[in-house]
Amino acid sequence: MSVRRVFALLTGLTAVLLGVVLAMGTGRDARPQAAAPVPAPAEEVVPAAGAEWVGTWSAAPTGGEPGTRDGLANRSVRNVVRASVGGTGARVELSNRYGTAPVTFTHVTLARAAGGGPAAVPGSLRRVTFGDMTSVTVPAGGSVLSDAVTLEVAPGGDLLVTVYAPGPSGPVTYHRMAQQTGYLATGDHADEPTGAPFTEAGEFWRYLTAVQVLSPAAPGAVVVLGDSLTDGITSTPDANRRWTDLLAARLREETGAPAPAVLNQGISGNRLLRDGAPDRQFNGTSGLRRLGTDVLPQAGAHTLVVQLGINDIILEPRQTDPAVILAGLRRLAEEARAEGLRVVGATLAPFGGHDGYAAELDRVRLLVNAGIRAGDIFDAVVDFDRALRDPVDPHRLAPAFDSGDGLHPNDAGYRAMAEAVDLAALRGDITERAL
């Protein structure tokens, strides 16, 4: 078992133990405070021969949600996520990374989504436990991985993960630009299959940072570390048209080869070399720092795709030395390889017409791209510059791919990005890389 896998398992176990201690120390009951009926009894998940746990969905936490200083007491949060691969069992990761106080969840459920909203497929709701307890306290800065539940998860199917916290806590750890509607209800409605109480909507993922499935078929996971282009902030909401979603669909549709999972760890405004500015902490910590927090803990990760660098060029303070950016990319690739990952690098897409455009900055981008294409940094390269640029004016996105701001693609542009990826490059030598 690799060091990073041991680290991930210990992190989850430690969070559970800390949660129990905190619950005891503060007088909080470790059992659910409401005697809600259990939708489906917990069943022991028995792995099929050769089955492995692999991440099927993920989102990087981007900070504490504004307006939630005391958490979301007596509110049920229902997240909607899309599974990139399927399985026969599932478990979830909840995060309090940006909280300032412990948060206690007394009711957590997982279900297949009926589609188009907060309703669940009848009979698919499962109560989720943590160390066989129905309640868990996650300390400030911590996370927790649940026990497994038996649930048939379809490749490309949507899931509902609902959490209920009865009492106040600190700010809600969330993903700021989900392009996916999430739902809120007053009171404990985690086991409500119709979705009727979930009358408040917002485009966030709250508390939930990963879903893993027990898969007999998926050969590990591809993790994409990126900025707003990977976050898909100009894709159609609720349509799952980020380039990573479309890439996952390509992999599932390919015949003759099992599809690896695709895990999106994009954060809008993220940089390779610098943390987000004090007034823009939702842009996340640097890509170099995120390797340890957002990539290595992902279950089954065998390939890393790096789509970072443009914000280092266009955001203040700007990095105008291409050698510094290339050195950062090289360091990230070397550190990832040292953990057993195959590393694929992406060229920087055009941004002519964007508010941040300047000819001297575009020169930096072109030099960075030349260094990426030279082939001595990454194991393989995906050329988003070539896929997206206007053949008439290569400093700009092709008009058919431009969302309107000169920087971010539209749905057609995201599809062009997904189609630019050599699927064989993602698999690499999977059999020789420990999953």
Automatic annotation (TrEMBL):
The keyword Acetylation does not apply. Pfam families: Lipase_GDSL_2. GO terms for molecular function: hydrolase activity. It comes from the Bacteria. This is SGNH/GDSL hydrolase family protein. Keywords: Hydrolase. InterPro entries: GDSL_Rv0518-like, SGNH_hydro, SGNH_hydro_sf. Signal peptide: none annotated. Residues 224-416 form the SGNH hydrolase-type esterase domain.
